[in-house]
């Protein structure tokens, strides 16, 4: 496999390795911290000295804070303020008791004891996903190394040359090994894998949800719990997402939800104040806040995902078809000399390599002339000059279908 065809694999592997390491770090650190409290934690009773609701601003999110005082097993009484979940905050009043835990000898690590099963589940999921990503890189890298070793040590199988001679069948059982050597194959696959989920999450699903709620949504009154501003992107391309959590009751069931609104409607919300909520009859778990959404941004994101998915699938299919044609011709094609008729710079870079276009002419067994082109990296293209002759394989039933072998005497 050439360095130019290996580069996409290296980039993809590096991305998977980075994501895997990140997920392993996030999940592992959370689980290790939990284990630290289990092994070294000391639990004591604390007295709540106050609680505060800090409402969201343009620079900070909603914070539910509790101040409490406790007496460590060693040293003087210790007091601190901690941000807690909404249920814990609602269940505490000034002067009430609550249980806190801290790492022995370090009162500053104190935290309110609560249900952290959801955090542990997320941490285990992140750790597992990170391990899967790392294993994919290790297994794929091992397979690539073995493939390169075989390509270096395997003896070349000579094939008869000359115009009009049938080429022996390829040693490959399918066209996929040829396809995997193509930059277009990997580029298309990555674009499709990124673009399709992106389009579904940011385009198809929100549009379907808008249609369903407009058609059958029922209104009720809930209460705003938290507000936060989440950022995505970098530098001058950062995008602000205005999100809020809320709670409402339907048929005796209390349900909490999260939604994203336009900035104007988000700013109208006030924590612990009423808010209008829409839900689907028979499925109240499907709900949203009443108000405008950043539909322009969602539409743009959906279109970006759709463009990537369409472009990726197109490039992927074309690369696969080209590989299938080449595989078929290497098995059943007819060899003919091809003459380079033109060679020029495309002023285009792919995968860091400047691309050139080579045009060649060949004649089929009927004597009919055919012109074809292919794009090559600069270092490969400059090995040719107009008038040079290389090998071509064409289909005897469809002579216009051909592949350029150049000076390749095998495959």
Topology diagram in text:
Elements: H1 3-40, E1 41-54, E2 63-70, E3 78-83, H2 86-90, E4 97-103, E5 106-112, H3 117-153, H4 176-180, H5 183-216, E6 218-232, E7 239-250, E8 253-261, H6 263-268, E9 274-280, E10 283-289, H7 295-332, E11 334-350, E12 353-363, E13 369-377, H8 378-381, E14 389-394, E15 402-406
Antiparallel strand pairs: 1-2, 1-4, 2-3, 4-5, 6-7, 6-9, 7-8, 9-10, 11-12, 11-14, 12-13, 14-15
Helix pairs in contact: 1-3, 1-5, 5-7
What report would you give on this structure?
The chain is an alpha+beta fold. It folds into three domains: 155 residues, no CATH class; 84 residues, Beta Barrel (OB fold (Dihydrolipoamide Acetyltransferase, E2P)), CATH 2.40.50; 79 residues, OB fold (Dihydrolipoamide Acetyltransferase, E2P). Helices cover 41% and strands 34% of the residues. The strands form three sheets. The chain has a five-stranded antiparallel sheet with strand order 3-2-1-4-5. Strand 9 and strand 10 form a beta hairpin. The longest helix has 38 residues. The radius of gyration is 32 Å and the shape is elongated. The two termini are 13 Å apart.
């Amino acid at each position: 496999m050439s360095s130019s065809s290996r580069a996409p694999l290296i980039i993809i592997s590096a991305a998977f390795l980075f994501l895997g390491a990140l997920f392993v770090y996030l999940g592992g650190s959370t689980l290790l911290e939990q284990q630290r409290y289990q092994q070294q934690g000391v639990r004591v009773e604390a007295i709540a000295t106050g609680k505060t609701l800090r409402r969201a601003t343009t620079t900070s999110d909603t914070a539910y804070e509790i101040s409490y005082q406790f007496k460590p097993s060693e040293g003087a009484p210790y007091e601190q303020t901690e941000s807690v979940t909404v249920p814990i905050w609602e269940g505490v009043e000034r002067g009430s008791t609550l249980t806190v835990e801290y790492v022995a000898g370090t009162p500053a690590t104190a935290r309110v004891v609560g249900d952290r099963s959801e955090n542990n589940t997320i941490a285990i999921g992140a750790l597992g996903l990170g391990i899967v990503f790392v294993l994919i890189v290790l297994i794929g890298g091992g397979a690539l190394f073995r493939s390169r070793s075989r390509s270096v040590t395997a003896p070349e199988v000579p094939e008869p040359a000359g115009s009009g001679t049938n080429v022996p069948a390829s040693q490959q059982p399918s066209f996929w090994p040829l396809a995997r050597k193509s930059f277009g194959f990997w580029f298309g696959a990555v674009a499709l894998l990124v673009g399709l989920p992106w389009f579904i999450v940011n385009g198809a699903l929100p549009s379907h949800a808008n249609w369903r709620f407009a058609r059958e949504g029922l209104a009720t009154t809930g209460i705003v719990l938290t507000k936060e501003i989440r950022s995505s992107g970098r530098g001058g391309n950062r995008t602000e997402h205005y999100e809020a959590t809320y709670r409402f009751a339907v048929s005796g069931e209390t349900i909490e939800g999260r939604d994203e609104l336009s900035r104007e409607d988000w700013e109208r919300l006030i924590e612990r104040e009423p808010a209008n909520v829409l839900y689907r009859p028979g499925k109240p778990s499907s709900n949203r806040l009443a108000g405008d959404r950043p539909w322009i941004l969602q539409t743009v994101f959906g279109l970006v995902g759709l463009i990537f998915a369409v472009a990726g699938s197109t490039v992927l299919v074309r690369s696969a078809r080209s590989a299938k044609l080449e595989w078929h011709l290497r098995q059943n094609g007819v060899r003919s000399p091809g003459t380079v008729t033109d060679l020029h710079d495309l002023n285009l870079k792919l995968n860091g390599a400047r691309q050139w276009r080579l045009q060649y002419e060949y004649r089929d067994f009927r004597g009919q002339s055919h012109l074809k082109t292919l794009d090559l990296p600069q270092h490969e293209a400059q090995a040719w000059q107009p008038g040079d002759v290389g090998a071509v394989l064409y289909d005897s039933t469809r002579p216009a279908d051909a592949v350029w072998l150049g000076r390749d005497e095998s495959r």
